[in-house]
Write the structure tokens for this entry.
Amino acid sequence: MVTASIIIYVLIQLLIGVWVSRQITTQEDFIVAGRSLGIGLASLTIFSTWFGAESIVGAAGAVYENGLGASGPDPFGYSVALILMGIFFAKALWKGGFLTLGDLFRREFGANVERLGVLLILPGPIIWGGAQIRAFGKVVSAITSLDVNVAITLAAIAVIGYTMLGGLYASALTDFIQGIVMILGLSLLLVCILWTVEPQQLQIEPERLQIFHIGSGSTIEAFESWAVPIFSTFVAVELISRILATKDAKTAQNASILGGSIYLIIGLIPVTMGLIAPKVLSSPLQDPEQVIPALAQQFLIFPDFIFPNIIYIMLMGAIISAILSTVDSVLLSGASILSNNFLVHAFKLEKNELQMKCTRISVVILGVIAYLCALFADRIKELVEIASSFGSAGLVPVVIFGLFTKFGGAYSASLALLVGLLGWFIGFIFELTAPYSISITVSTLAYLCTAVILKESRSKPSLT
């Protein structure tokens, strides 16, 4: 019954994507939903896109294993980032009239910077998509008899097919529905746990409640753990695509702020369950990332009911659907960048039909690569940390200077992007304490120094 219910649940989401896909006629419809999203749909799709595998499976598992300090980026760092994105960036991005972030690079710095930006942006969505696919496989494996790798393979087939059909409006619509289901499902699980257990089981050791300190970690390490989610979110193509899809600049701003606020509130539920799980689970877990499925199996199956698994199935279906929606978002945003900012120009595709076909083919290519990442990664949280930080350090100063100033030009932007990537790569290989923070610092200095030495400035007005 559980397996059949999950299949039906996923098929319903696929059917929604098929139905919406029939209304897509242009590349703009496919990539930014015709710039039609209102505040409700936009804020829920922002929340649902960010509230994926790492927010549910990864964050709960990290807190279960290491206490509250392990949750810094999730939900606190990412929710702060979404709110700051709304306050400072959303209006300027929307007023630019872009289809993708790559359009900003092309308009402000030229085609060469656009192509370089595409190369640096693409790994993030691919790796993040791999994290979501792996989470899908782990959840399905936990509640059925399927092997994890088999479940990951089936997940990849489903999400690649769905993403190729749906476009952003289909993604936003399913995000809205599944976001509501996710909120209800997680809330119900927490209420059932609190209703069932004894008060003394909820007493948490003080060391597990320290949010800014884990073991012997330094202040620099703590800063780094917050810098990655905050700064990487400012240049995340998944978020920017939803901002660009709203109906006006004010809606773009409010949707990001509201989405971040919802994320913080709902994101505290898995964190809370990770904290109390060692006290309330009937037996310890070998795999911390199975904490949410384990809690659901223990507290959401009621033998006296006519359908004893019904509430449990609802929660698992909601988690799976939310993960699918996140995969849809990251693969679509990555494919849009690859197609709109590279392949369309390279092959001189001028017709809308050819551009949309190119974007759909790009979805398949990126989806297969994400599937391979999911197969060979050991931990979801590791995938997300790499996806968040890879290449984005150099993007941060380029986006900020490109949006809000006319200081600097193509050479400044190119050097900042390359130095940011090199700094992250060196830090990652040699296991430096704060590779991402160092990369942002040196890439910003590279931009500033190059602009000053070459006296670079752009004649076009900044987007404010």
In short: The two ends are 54 Å apart (CA to CA).
